[in-house]
Structure formats: C-alpha cells, structure tokens
Specification:
GO molecular function (chain A): DNA binding; unfolded protein binding; zinc ion binding
Distance between the termini of chain A: 85 Å
Largest interface: A-B, 29 and 27 residues
CATH architecture of chain B: Orthogonal Bundle
Shape of chain A: elongated
Distance between the termini of chain B: 46 Å
Strand order of the largest sheet of chain A: 6-7-11-10
Number of domains of chain B: 1
Oligomer: heterodimer
Pfam families (chain A): DnaJ, DnaJ_C
Helix content of chain A: 25-40%
InterPro entries (chain A): DnaJ_C, DnaJ_domain, HSP40/DnaJ_pept-bd, J_dom_sf
Keywords (chain A): Chaperone, DNA-binding, Metal-binding, Repeat, Zinc, Zinc-finger
Order of helices and strands of chain A: HHHHHEEEEEEEHEEEEH
Protein name (chain A): Curved DNA-binding protein
Largest sheet of chain B: 3 strands, antiparallel
CATH class of chain B: Mainly Alpha
Largest sheet of chain A: 4 strands, mixed
Number of strands of chain A: 11
CATH architecture of the largest domain in chain A: Orthogonal Bundle
CATH class of the largest domain in chain A: Mainly Alpha
C-alpha cells in the first residue's frame, strides 16, 4: 500500500478551492465515466482513481485529514474517527458504476470502509454487474454443455448452448454483486472468446474447409472421403472438376445458436494437387496427352 | 405485456430519489417509453437499467438532457458499430 497523491490525480494544486476541485472532478469524470467508455478497463481504473480523489478532496473533513497526515498515513488512525455522513447525495443506484470495494487500500486505511457515498439506509440498491471472459475452443461450443465457473469465490454452473459465437455475451441474471438493503442482485455478463485450432473456418453457422484433390480423380471423377466437423463423409467427385470448385454440404456446418437440431452448411473447396517427382514414363504419357490436345 | 413487469413511475422516482419531472423529460426526449394504465404511469422493468444510466449521466456528470440525449444516441451507435466490427472480425477469420 503506497501513498496516493489525490491532488495530482485531479490535476489541482494543494491550495485549490472546493470549486476548483469540483470543476476538475467533473471534467475528468466526463472523460472517464464507465457509461461513456463501455468495456474500457483503463478508463474504468482511471475513473475509480478520480472518484476516490474526489471523495477525499471534496469533503472538508477528509481533505483536512489527508492534508494533515497525507504521506504519513500510517499514523492517521489517531485522527478523530467520527465523520459526518452525507445522508442524501442522490439515491439512485450505480449498476455499471463503482462500489465501495473499488476504493484503494490507502483510502480504506485512512477513511475506513464506508465512504461518504453511503446513502439513506432505506433505499434499495441493485448489485453491481460483473463481467467475465470465458475461453473456449471451437470443439467446445459444437455441443451444448454445462460448465462450472468461479466468480468472486462462488461456483456457478452454467449451460453453454451449442453455436455461441466468438465475442458473444450472455447474461446470467442475478449472479452479479449482491443487492443492498434487499435490492436485487446485479447480473453476470460472460463474453466468449473462442479459439479455433481446426482446419475449419467458421462464419456464423457455416463452416468452410479446403480439401486437396488428386489430379486424376479431378480429371476422371471418383469418390473421396473427407472430414466434417463431426465425422467423415464420402463425396462423389464429378469428372473434369476444376481447381477451387466449391461444393455445399447442407446441414454439415455448425449448430445454430438456440435452435436445437439445426445446423448451418459446410462449404468444401477443392484444391487440385499436381503430382511431383514425375517418372520418365509419366512425363512421356502426359506429353502424349498434351499432343492429343493440340 | 405482463402487469408484473411494470413498475410505477411514482415508485421508481421515490426509490431513486429523483423528481417525476425527470422521467417525464426522458419520455419527452423519447429516451424511454412510459406506459399508461388506468391513469397511472409505468415503465417496463427492462428499461430500468437504461433509466439508471440516464440518471448517472444527468446527475453524476451534470449533463443537461439535450446532452444526455446526444450522448445516449452516440453510445448506441458506438455499440452497434462494435457489434458490426465483432461480426466482421469473425468473418475475416475465414481468410486468415
């Protein structure tokens, strides 16, 4: 735990008036407020610092104590503990905002766990929303499955529906921060980060795969076996199949999100493989073919 | 719409300690939808989070309602664009 220079955070001098502090706080709060910077953890951290600085410097009692002990905060406990509690400084909740947990250890040490933001005791507050990221593989999200997550030391068992997308966010109602004074709990938002180490490329419900095709099968036609996401299938290749021919295998793609039993399509692109290390005989035969074509 | 999914504007204002006129203004700016049932005003519970956000912008940041209206709509646009980027990034993965 180290000393925090609240004046520096707000960009004001030690002789700043209450009005200067208010002005500086408002300016910075507008810049870094979480509502204006969604999903920006840097802005969120900065906002918490600004808020904490404002908590101290905008209240004469806190400021006096801070100015008196400041860098020697270890001795601050001797300071008179009684502190006026501001009773009615707006009573709406801050579900996307900050909670008392967001104050630094330094603040907690100097000013105790309860900040002057504490509001009227009878007002119900909704708990804070939590955000979490869940790393999964493409194989994981091919089937609906259950998974246990640990959020704030609590185990939550959730069902992950097949077909969730990379970056998709799902809401688990009531698993966020605890409500205050009987208010409802916040929600838990889980963002999926899906890694793909397969040969398949995914776009929503459709899958794409490249398949090497033997030259002679491409020329004369035949049968090949390819891997789909959940097994092998046999495909008939038409004679004279061209390089980069694309075929669609209906229903062999990825499961559709929350549509049980429905699947996207698999698009297979053929890449004709030209034989290498030709023998003399092969070269002669191909030359003969070339001459026929002339 | 189920009755139990509605919360009275009066109760909401009391809980959050904001004047009724604030909710009226939000409706005026078409930022929220107020439902009238037997001469009482209600909002759908799904809108509470939005109302809280609008309250924070107005009261915490001291932004007037014209500003809140602009900010809210711009944030919505940013959200839509982020969704589009996410979708395009996933599409782009096909070509990597």
């Amino acid at each position: 735990m180290s000393f925090i220079d609240y004046y520096k955070i707000l960009g004001v001098s030690k002789t700043a008036t209450e009005a200067d502090i208010k002005k500086a706080y408002r300016k910075l709060a507008r810049k870094y407020h979480p509502d204006l910077n969604p999903n920006d953890t840097v802005a969120e951290k900065k906002f918490k610092e600004i808020n904490e600085a404002n908590e101290v410097l905008s209240h004469p009692e806190n400021r006096k104590k801070y100015d008196q002990y400041g860098e020697h905060w270890q001795h601050a406990e001797e300071f008179e503990k009684a502190k006026q509690q501001e009773q009615s400084k707006g009573s709406y909740t801050s579900s996307d905002g900050y909670s008392e947990e967001d104050f630094s250890d330094f603040f907690e040490h100097m000013f105790g766990g309860t900040s002057s933001r504490a509001r009227g005791g009878q007002v119900k507050f909704r708990g804070q929303d939590y955000n979490a990221e869940l790393q999964l593989s493409l194989q994981d999200v091919y089937t609906t499955h259950k998974r246990t997550l640990t959020v704030n030391n609590k185990n939550i068992r959730i069902t992950i529906p097949a077909g969730v997308e990379n970056g998709q966010i799902i809401k688990i109602k009531g698993h966020g921060g605890k409500g205050v004074n009987g208010g409802p709990n916040g929600d838990l938002y889980i963002q999926f980060s899906i890694s793909n180490h397969t040969n398949f490329k995914r776009d929503k419900n459709n899958l794409y795969v490249d398949v090497d095709l033997d030259l002679y099968i491409a020329l004369l036609g035949g049968e090949i076996t390819i891997d789909t996401f959940n097994g092998k299938v046999k495909l008939n290749i038409k004679p004279e199949t061209q390089n980069r021919t694309k075929v669609k295998l209906k229903g062999k793609g990825f499961p559709k999100y929350r549509k049980e039993g429905q699947f996207g399509d698999l698009y297979v692109t053929y890449y004709i493989k030209i034989p290498t290390n030709l023998t003399t005989q092969e070269k002669e035969l191909i030359k003969a073919l070339q001459n026929i074509r002339k | 719409m189920k009755e139990q999914d509605l919360i009275s504007v009066q109760l909401l204002c009391k809980r959050y300690n904001v004047p009724n006129s604030f909710i009226e203004k939000l409706q005026e700016y078409q930022l929220i939808e107020v439902i009238v049932r037997q001469e009482d005003f209600f909002i759908h519970v799904a809108q509470i989070k939005k109302v809280e956000k609008l309250m924070r912008l107005h009261f915490d940041l001291n932004i007037n309602l014209e500003g809140v209206d602009v900010i809210y709509n711009l944030l919505k646009q940013v959200e839509d664009l982020q969704e589009e980027i996410k979708s395009l990034k996933n599409k782009l993965n096909r070509y990597e």
